[in-house]
What does this fold into?
Amino acid sequence: MSSPADAPRAGEHPGPEAALQLALDLTALDQAADLVAALSPRLSRIEVGTPLALAAGLAAVERLRPLAPPAAVIIADVKICDAGEKIARRAYAAGADVVTVVAPAIDDVTWRGVLAAAADRPDPGGRAAPVLVDTVGARPHPAALAALAAAAAAAGVAVDLCLHRPKVNPPGFAELMRLLDGHRSGFAQLAVAGQLVPAQVRPALEAGFGTLIVGGAVTGAGDPAAVWDTFRAEVQAAGR
It folds into this structure.
């Protein structure tokens, strides 16, 4: 199996189904491992969700990586808002390709610590490990996001941005995109999360999102494989 450094970086999506990221927001590691093993040939981005990371620790990353396709990107959804460098270094050391930070809560010192950890984990081509910035349901603040992107660019770190839809009365995908107010160019990829269902795949992609983060619709389904394949079919039907 290839090493984590051989995996595609954030923003590099090799196939139609690569626009999908499976969020394992579970608390039982065995259940998560069984699901990854069952879907493995069809996964390109696998997120060790925050509940799983808290319940099983970063050992979850180590457990799931051998079950994933060799080129799969593993995201540790550790939602960093403090102790940035320490948490990021530990997550990367466990085998994560990407770590997440909380956009509304992260301060400059914490952010620069995360960037330092990412820059110290280059791939064979010399590229730093990427980071995913998550708005966690809050209304995006374009100027603050632009400042995060600018600091990352100066550090040579690629950053993805996840617009996390509010759980109550979420805006449409086009409206979410407008909230960025023209500050999308600083991010390698734009992702969207928040109770996504298959019928929302096409409008999300048409709005400009490159990664769709899917969780409960799959992990809570009676037949997770069938639901995941429905998402994949919608992505392919949209020409992605």
